[in-house]
Specification:
There is one protein chain. By secondary structure, the chain is of the alpha+beta class. β6 and β7 form a beta hairpin. 27% of the residues lie in helices and 26% in strands. Among the domains are: 98 residues, no CATH class; 52 residues.
Amino acid sequence: MEKLKSFLVNIDFEDQLSEQKFRPPHWHKINKELEYLFFWQGLENASLWTPIEYDLDYLNYVENLVGTKPKTKTEGLYDELWWGQLRDQSEFSRQQKANSKAFCAQARKDLGLENFSSFICHSLGDVSDSLAKIDGPFVIKDDICFSGRGFSFKKLEGDQFPKIVEPWVRRVRDFSIFRYGDNEEICCLQTHVNSEGTYKGSLFKETMSEAPSLCKNFEKIEEYYRKELSCTEVQVDAYQYLEGSELNFQFLGEVNHRKTLGKVFWDLHKRFGNRSSFLGIIPSFQLRKKSFKESIDNLGKFHFNPVTKSGVIHLSPREARFSLFFFTEESERALQFLIRDFWKREVKEGLKLPPEFIVYL
């Protein structure tokens, strides 16, 4: 019989990489915001290492849909890391480079993918000099950060370096591209972010006109990271933006060498998805119902139907600060109606559907 392995979901991966030296990963309170996604993998001989005692209604809900009973471990050591691999000083140094925005900016230059200048700054003086070269809005990025955390839109007085200074462009669409599965297919998703660059969801649709160009450039970027850092399973984030009336691509926005919400979403789509699927994030305080059971009961006809492969799956326990929902339907139009009707039923009155939840135009 195969040994039961325990996994630590180290969501604080970027926080660790931003430190000066390696420290062994351990459970951090930020982990509880996303660690439950491990349950949705449906792994038979695996458990989640966590001190959190999950609600029984939630665990039963996961088991009914996935077919595998979620297991947890609270004592002893974990066996594996699930979010980002970080075992020793050598791995720490490599991961710092692989997830570095400064390294990414240099890769853009080397690959000829730089549409506008990204300034790598090592001091406040560098930041001031770089800002003087930008006419209009700008963003200052920490070298290592996660989902928009570490972005600043005002001048700095002092902080850790390096920093990346870039023009803040009018982004139209965001994308995530990565290889998936044993056959190594290239997957291209549309990513939904808010006005400050914070991740709000992922969308899959069968037809995406931008995919061929994105995938072609992904292969060049992937080869660069493989050659320079021996990287595997990179996710490239790209976007379209408006420059005047002209639509341009930034094929290399950043690279993540770890588990991502895009990859988790694609796993969910492969298991549950119809022709169009969306992963959406809603602050839990905006939901009408307080308990997980109440929330599920309230879904009613919107609850996921495994026969038709349509409906809504509540991915997160109700105690999480942010609630994640998986939506899937037979078309983008039907998916938008599902999201709209769900919003009216689940979210507190007076809160309008945000732009990030618009998946069909």
